[in-house]
């Protein structure tokens, strides 16, 4: 075992209270907050067991994609009217309301696709998965898994101890990422 | 050379004989749909003669005939709703053009025409021999699924323009006539170029009897009517 | 003091088994039923192919009634698809606590109803095989489609909404697919593993998932409103009496949501019975849906009356002829419309006894759906049949071809829904669990109440 290589200590807990207790014990080890997370079948309120401080920024990028889509819709209408001008009903060649409608829909279309792709990227799903992720199927039975990224050696041992002391089941160390 | 074709229908002269309808059917390869289809409202004629009756007290019942071809509106409501530009306003002739091979048959133009002059090919109409020899080679036979309407006999307009160009002279007034104008026995339907100040239609446009059908809709039709005069003996 | 939440009382795997009964392997009865639906759909497709090769003359359409049952079906199914958007998106954003069991069924309804409705603009074309002229692609003809036409706006909007609702449905299913993945075997496991895309349920994943879900909901609501507005503008932009009305956009959107809620109620009743979901879909849920339906009965009635009043009062000659036909040739249609859309649902839905009775709600929802279909007929047909020039007035009655399309569309929707419910979790299990997790019991004085938590925690980790 090489010291310093990150491993993950994972333990199952029966309720939120026990998991919170264990997380508190881990934090006082000390383990930095961003190295501890839960895996659960229901979303736990932020701060119940762990807290996620990394900012979520991708909605702003979705706005950028909305603008790009809207510009695409605008180009589709106004530019093509210039390139292929046809008189209909005596209306002007460049009509504004249809351009607004198509630009709006184009923007929304781009925003929807962007939300999916950027959401996947932010969560780390699908093609954006990297590395071997730790998981335990027993979370679907109501257990909450508490995971901590630790350095091998002393930190790992202390973490396992802290989790066992708080009433965890199946506490073990695994290779993988949070 | 640009022209503004227009049609003037004098209701004083119209007797409602329907010769214009027959001529249009002969000229434009219009199918004959049969009695049951006609009863369902699927007549294919591009011009119709509408007959309205009027009964006043102490007077006999009178009929008025309104021959209704396509109005070729300057602000045609049918043009703007076609999703594929199968109908548009031809700027050289100022007519409403219909492009059969572009039409995909949404029938929105038919719904948007307030005069209901547009008809739709509900079937592939077959012409038994020897009726197919009656077809006019100057224009197509439309397949099922496309809209069609009066075109001011655009094939005759084109031929007239080509002939005039070949002979290096302007088109004479009355030289280019749609089938209905050519056939009308009392001469109620007149056709010509509004840009020519000497043409018959230009003079008739200044007639105080002139009115347009459904003028309040603002479609600016090129087909105008001259009101029927009423009074003793008329 | 630890307060026990409702989720901890339950065995989560038993809960999953109960809620995912639809995903059990198919029985002979399922195959028989699905096969029957498939036969009806195929028959309908055969009728369509016949129509395509013979011409639209096999329908009852004529001049001037150039739009008929196929357009009516288009508007009807697109309207029905507004169900999921309202229930799912709006209730998600406003965090209504009772939304959980209804979400998935409603979202599925949206996507699947759109798939059915989106076929009809293609089916009603005279030359269907040339439908691609609508697509903007550079061609030798030097023509692009006409973006001034409402039908093009339709194409853009329906594409966007269909994509959006499918993505919304898929994204909402991801946590449930993760559970299914972990409990399935064989080919199902492979399917769910692929679709769940590696979702695990870490704290960071849940937070980002919530943000993305909310963002989807926020985007899909304006899209839904715009889609049915654009569909209404197919009519409102035309110079047809009683169509050319500025109120059409909000009127149609309100009508769509109305029929959508009724559709959701009907589907929920069927799901509840078929998959024995009595414990999650309680009479309280139908009570809340019924209150929504009542609201929209009133909203629909308000818009319809406003539209009718302005046309009736000013008596423009063209509009007046159409209104006169409502008490003439189209009186049965008009009476059916007013009865089914307002006179029957309104008093019934005011009664709590009706709202909490599931058979009654099923009946009311079917009545509303019939009423809304009749409303579409009422909008399309009389205006065309009694339009500007009286010399060409005609009547319209659908032929066997169009009736088969009506039946075929219902069968197609049922077929896709049945297959969907067999393959995918039809109850939003994660949302149900989340609601149960947030629900606790509290004693206030002598009363025992259940309270639901909402909001994020404060710094100390205490829930507010």
Short synopsis of the structure:
Chain B is of the alpha+beta class and 234 residues long.
Low-confidence stretches of chain A: none
Order of helices and strands of chain A: EHEHHEHE
Please give the number of β-strands of chain C. Answer: 2
Sheet with the most strands: spatial strand order of chain A: 2-3-1-4
Shape of chain A: rod-shaped
Low-confidence stretches of chain C: 459-464
CATH class of the largest domain in chain A: Alpha Beta
Structural class of chain C: mainly alpha
The ordered H/E elements of chain C are: HHHHHHHHHHHHHHHHHHEE
What is the subunit arrangement here? heterotrimer
How helical, in percent, are the residues of chain A?
40-55%
**How many β strands of chain A by DSSP?**
4
Shape of chain C: globular
Number of helices of chain A: 4
Distance between the termini of chain A: 20 Å
**Whole-number mean pLDDT of chain C:** 91
Provide the descriptors you would attach to this structure in a database record:
heterotrimer, A: 178 residues, alpha+beta, Alpha-Beta Plaits, 2 domains, 4-stranded antiparallel sheet, 4 helices, 4 strands, 44% helix, rod-shaped, B: 234 residues, 4-stranded mixed sheet, two-stranded antiparallel ribbon, 7 helices
Task: Write the topology of this structure.
The complex is a heterotrimer of chains A (178), B (234) and C (464).
Chain A: E1 6-13, H1 16-27, E2 36-39, H2 58-83, H3 96-123, E3 144-151, H4 154-165, E4 169-174
Chain B: E1 5-10, H1 19-27, H2 35-39, E2 48-54, E3 62-68, H3 77-80, E4 87-90, E5 95-98, H4 108-112, E6 119-120, E7 147-148, H5 154-166, H6 179-183, E8 189-193, H7 200-205, E9 210-211, E10 223-226
Chain C: H1 12-19, H2 28-54, H3 69-80, H4 82-94, H5 103-117, H6 120-123, H7 150-183, H8 186-196, H9 203-236, H10 248-274, H11 283-314, H12 317-326, H13 331-343, H14 345-350, H15 352-355, H16 358-385, H17 400-423, H18 429-438, E1 439-444, E2 447-452
Antiparallel strand pairs in C: 1-2
Helix pairs in contact in C: 2-17, 3-5, 3-10, 3-16, 4-5, 4-9, 4-10, 5-7, 5-17, 7-8, 7-9, 9-10, 10-11, 10-16, 13-16
């Amino acid at each position: 075992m090489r010291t310093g290589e990150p491993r993950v200590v994972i333990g199952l807990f029966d309720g939120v209270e026990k998991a919170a207790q264990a997380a508190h014990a881990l934090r006082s080890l000390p383990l930095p907050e961003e190295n501890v997370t839960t895996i659960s079948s229901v979303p736990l309120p932020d701060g119940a067991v762990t807290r996620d401080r990394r900012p979520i920024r991708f909605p702003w990028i979705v706005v950028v994609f909305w603008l790009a889509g809207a510009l695409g819709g605008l180009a589709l209408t106004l530019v093509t009217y210039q390139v292929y001008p046809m008189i209909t009903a005596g209306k002007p060649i460049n009509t504004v309301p249809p351009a607004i409608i198509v630009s709006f829909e184009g923007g929304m279309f781009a925003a929807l696709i962007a939300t999916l792709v950027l959401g996947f990227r932010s969560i780390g799903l699908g093609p954006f998965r990297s590395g071997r992720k730790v998981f335990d199927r027993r979370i679907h039975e109501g257990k909450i898994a508490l995971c901590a990224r630790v350095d091998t050696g002393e930190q790992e041992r202390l973490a396992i101890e802290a989790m066992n002391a708080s009433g965890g089941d199946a506490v073990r160390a695994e290779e993988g990422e949070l | 050379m640009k022209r503004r074709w227009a049609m003037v229908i004098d209701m004083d002269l119209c007797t409602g004989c329907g010769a214009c309808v027959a001529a249009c059917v002969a000229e434009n390869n219009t199918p004959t749909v049969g009695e049951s289809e006609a009863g369902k409202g699927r007549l294919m004629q591009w011009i119709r003669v509408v007959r309205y009756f009027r009964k006043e007290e102490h007077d006999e019942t009178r009929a008025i005939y309104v021959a209704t071809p396509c109005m070729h509106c300057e602000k045609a409501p049918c043009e703007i709703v076609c999703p594929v530009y199968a109908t548009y306003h031809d700027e050289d002739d100022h007519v409403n053009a219909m492009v059969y091979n572009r039409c995909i048959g949404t029938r929105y133009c038919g719904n948007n025409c307030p005069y209901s002059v547009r008809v739709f090919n509900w079937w592939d109409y077959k012409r038994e021999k020897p009726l197919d020899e009656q077809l006019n080679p100057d224009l197509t036979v439309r397949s099922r699924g496309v809209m069609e309407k009066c075109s001011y006999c655009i094939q005759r307009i084109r031929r007239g323009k080509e002939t005039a160009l070949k002979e290096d002279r302007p088109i004479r007034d009355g030289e280019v006539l749609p089938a209905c104008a050519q056939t009308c026995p009392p001469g109620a339907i007149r056709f010509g170029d509004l840009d020519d100040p000497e043409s018959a239609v230009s003079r008739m446009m200044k007639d105080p009897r002139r009115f347009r059908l459904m003028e309040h809709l603002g479609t600016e039709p090129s087909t105008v009517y001259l009101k029927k005069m009423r009074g003793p003996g008329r | 003091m630890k307060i026990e939440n409702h989720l901890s009382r339950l065995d989560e795997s038993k809960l999953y088994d109960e809620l995912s009964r639809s995903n059990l392997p198919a029985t002979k009865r399922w195959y028989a039923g699905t096969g029957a639906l498939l036969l009806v759909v195929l028959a309908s497709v055969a009728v369509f192919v016949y129509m395509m090769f013979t011409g639209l003359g096999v329908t009852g359409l004529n001049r001037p009634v150039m739009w008929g049952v196929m357009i009516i079906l288009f508007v009807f199914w697109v309207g029905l698809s507004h169900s999921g958007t309202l229930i799912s998106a709006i209730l998600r954003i406003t965090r209504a606590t009772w939304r959980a069991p209804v979400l998935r069924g409603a979202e599925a309804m949206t996507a699947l109803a759109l798939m059915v409705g989106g076929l009809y603009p293609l089916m009603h074309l005279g030359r269907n095989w040339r439908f691609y002229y609508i697509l903007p692609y550079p061609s030798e003809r030097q023509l692009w489609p006409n973006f001034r036409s409402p039908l093009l706006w339709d194409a853009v909007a329906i594409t966007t909404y269909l994509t959006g609702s499918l993505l919304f449905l898929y994204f909402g299913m991801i946590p449930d697919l993760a559970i299914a993945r972990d409990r399935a075997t064989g080919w199902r496991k492979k399917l769910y593993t692929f679709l769940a895309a590696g979702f695990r349920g870490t704290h960071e994943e849940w937070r980002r998932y919530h943000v993305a879900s909310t963002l989807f909901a926020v985007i899909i609501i304006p899209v839904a409103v715009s889609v049915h507005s654009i569909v209404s503008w197919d009519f409102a932009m035309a110079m047809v009496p009683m169509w050319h009305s500025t109120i059409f956009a909000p009127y149609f959107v309100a009508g769509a949501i109305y029929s959508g809620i009724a559709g959701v109620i009907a589907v929920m009743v069927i799901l509840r019975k078929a998959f024995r979901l009595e414990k999650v879909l309680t009479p309280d849920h139908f009570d809340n849906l019924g209150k929504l339906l009542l609201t929209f009965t009133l909203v629909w009635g308000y818009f319809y009356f406003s539209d009718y009043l302005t046309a009736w009062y000013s008596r423009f000659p063209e509009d007046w002829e159409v209104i006169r036909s409502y008490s003439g040739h189209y009186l049965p249609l008009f009476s059916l419309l007013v009865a089914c859309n307002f006179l029957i649902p309104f008093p019934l839905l005011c009664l709590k006894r009706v709202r909490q009775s599931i058979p009654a709600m099923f009946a009311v929802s079917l009545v509303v759906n019939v009423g809304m279909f009749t409303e579409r007929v009422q909008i399309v047909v009389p205006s065309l049949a009694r339009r500007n020039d009286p010399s060409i007035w005609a009547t319209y009655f659908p032929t066997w071809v169009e009736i088969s399309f009506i039946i075929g569309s219902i069968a197609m929707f049922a077929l896709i829904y049945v297959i969907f419910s067999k393959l995918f979790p039809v109850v939003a299990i994660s949302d149900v669990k989340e609601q149960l997790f947030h629900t606790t019991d509290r004693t206030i004085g002598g009363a025992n109440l259940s309270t639901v938590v909402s909001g994020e925690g404060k710094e100390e980790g205490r829930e507010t």
